[in-house]
Every structure is written in C-alpha cells, then in structure tokens.
Specification:
Structural class: alpha+beta
Number of strands: 8
Strand content: 25-35%
Radius of gyration: 21 Å
Distance between the termini: 18 Å
Shape: elongated
Largest sheet: 4 strands, antiparallel
Order of helices and strands: EHHEEEEEEHEHH
Number of helices: 5
C-alpha cells in the first residue's frame, strides 16, 4: 500500500493573515494619500509607511514560506503559495541538520544533477517533529547532526512497535 501523507499550514489562518495584511496596506495607502497634508504631524506622516512596510513583510513571509509538505513513495514535496514546489527524491537525500541562527532552521542536503544542493526551512511549520521523523523513517541512513540524532525517533523503534 502506498504511503502518502500531507501536512498543511492552517489554510484559514494563512488566508486570513494575507487578507488583513492587504487590507491594512490598502488602508495605509488611502490614509497617506487622502489624510496627510502639510499640517499633519511627523508621527502621523510616518505611521502609514510603517504599516505598509509591516504589511508587505507579512505578505512576503506568507506567500514564500512552506504551505504544504507532501510525502509520496518516491519523494517529499514542499509546496508554496507564491513559488514553485521543491521536490526532493528520497534516494538523493544525504544529510539533515538543525541550524540555529536568527531562526531555528532545518537544512536538508541532497544531490541534484550530480551536485550537492540544500533546502532550508523553518521549524515553525505545524507538526515539524512528525515531518522530521517521517523523513528519517523513509530514509533511515540519512546523516543527522548531534541534536537531531538525539531528538528524532530511530526507525528501529518503529520496527519494534509494529511487531
């Protein structure tokens, strides 16, 4: 039986946030055009542009961050709203690392066209431990860093629980 699993960011929340960001940006543009004049104080001249900046930042983050993670028999697929999906075949995966920088990230190293490629995604995605354990289950020989080696459940544990 084929094993297929899909993890999605909550679509209601994602689209609601995008709607409010666009609405806030539209309202801030309207205020900047219609309500600001020569007598308006400096603070009230700056606020609409700060709102526009924050709204654009929110829109970009929601459009270009992972929306869907799909496990298939042959590969794992990372889907986005605003860019093409990333497909990584199971047999090309080499290494999975936890990276702490400004954000907590997972770095997947895999082979693409004979060269090493990397795909980086945040740990803020829902059910991230299930996803990482699913990758380890499908590719039990993948190289893990020390942190992930301690945190993730070894495929041998799955085998014992299925018996």
């Amino acid at each position: 039986m084929p094993e297929r699993k899909v993890y999605r960011f909550n679509q209601f929340v994602r689209w609601l946030v995008l709607f409010f960001a666009v609405a806030a940006m539209g309202y801030a543009i309207w205020v900047a055009i219609n309500k600001i004049n020569a007598e308006t104080g400096l603070f009230f001249k700056i606020v609409p542009f700060a709102i526009i900046f924050l709204a654009i930042n929110t829109i970009i983050k929601n459009i270009f961050s992972i929306n869907t993670v799909r496990f298939t028999d042959d590969d794992i697929r990372f889907g986005f709203i605003g860019r093409s999906k990333v497909v990584i075949p199971w047999n090309s995966m080499k290494k999975m690392e936890f990276v702490t920088s400004r954000q907590r990230l997972i770095r997947l190293t895999y082979e693409k066209d004979g060269k090493d490629a990397m795909f980086v995604f945040t740990t803020g995605f829902p059910k991230i431990l299930d996803i990482l354990n699913g990758i380890l289950r499908k590719r039990s020989d993948i190289e893990l860093d020390d942190f992930l080696d301690k945190v993730l459940v070894s495929p041998a544990v799955y085998e014992k629980t299925e018996e």
